[in-house]
UniProtKB/TrEMBL annotation:
Pfam family, one: Abhydrolase_1
Domain AB hydrolase-1, residue spans: 32-218
The protein's name: Alpha/beta fold hydrolase
SUPFAM superfamilies with a match to the protein in the record: alpha/beta-Hydrolases
Xref: InterPro entries: AB_hydrolase_1, AB_hydrolase_fold, AB_hydrolase_sf
Record key words, sorted: Hydrolase
Coiled-coil annotated residue ranges, if any: none
Length: 228
């Protein structure tokens, strides 16, 4: 997703923090996502940083914290998961569905992206008009990620699995997730709760009636939890 989704966070935190964004526009391979994030970190040599990430960005943030434990102070993970794809031991997106999305994206990017936008919201949020609000913002403010970047992002999600190394995270962690999130189901948070050594009960925020995009639908609460 694009920098514009963080606009209110940027305004809220800019007096307290120096803020930088990772631009994934030019990613063409799944490995590029971590490389671009690491390159951002290297622009601030020796600095200890706090990272906020949403969806795929939250997963990249976790990997970055594992790779650079002495550089990452805290993680704010919004709509995250320790693994994206289902297997015999984990409930995530069915592999067949991800393959279908990849095919559909290559054939009809616009229709596929609109379908994903709809999946980001719970039935209650759809009735409340949040999809319309988001599509209006996207039309006004989004540049549009190139197709190779979108495809690379899905490939990244396809292979993403940090269950076996999640215990290596030493940064403080705050988790924000919708209980009605069908893209990153909240069951994954329960697993993270068991494995993450630095995650406290008070720092887990599971929101009833909320889908995959609490940045928009629960923005005041997200800012409050992040600032704490």
């Amino acid at each position: 997703m694009e920098k514009a989704i963080w606009s209110e966070w940027e305004i809220y935190f800019q007096r307290q923090y120096e803020i930088a964004f990772v631009d994934f526009q030019n990613c063409v391979q799944s490995a590029d996502y971590i490389q671009y994030a690491a390159a951002m970190l290297e622009q601030y040599p020796g600095r200890i940083i706090d990272i906020a990430g949403w969806s795929l960005g939250a997963m990249v943030a976790v990997e970055l914290a594992i790779l650079y434990p002495k550089r990452v102070n805290s993680l704010i993970l919004i709509s995250a998961a320790p693994k994206f794809i289902s297997d015999n031991e984990y409930l995530g997106m069915p592999p067949s569905l991800l393959r279908k999305i990849l095919r559909d994206l290559s054939r009809n990017p616009s229709k596929t992206i609109k379908g994903f936008y709809r999946e980001m919201y719970s039935s209650t949020e759809l009735i409340q008009g949040y999809l319309d609000k988001f599509e209006d913002q996207a039309q006004r403010e989004f540049v549009g990620l190139p197709l190779p970047s979108l495809m690379a992002g899905l490939k990244y999600l396809e292979q993403f699995d940090v269950r076996h190394i999640l215990s290596e995270v030493s940064a403080k962690v705050c988790i924000i997730n919708g209980l009605d999130d069908t893209i990153c189901p909240p069951q994954g948070i329960q697993l993270m709760k068991k494995i993450l050594p630095t995650l406290n009960e008070d720092d887990i925020h599971l929101i009833p009636g909320c889908g995959h995009h609490p940045l928009l639908t629960k923005k005041e609460a997200c800012l409050k939890w992040a600032s704490n």
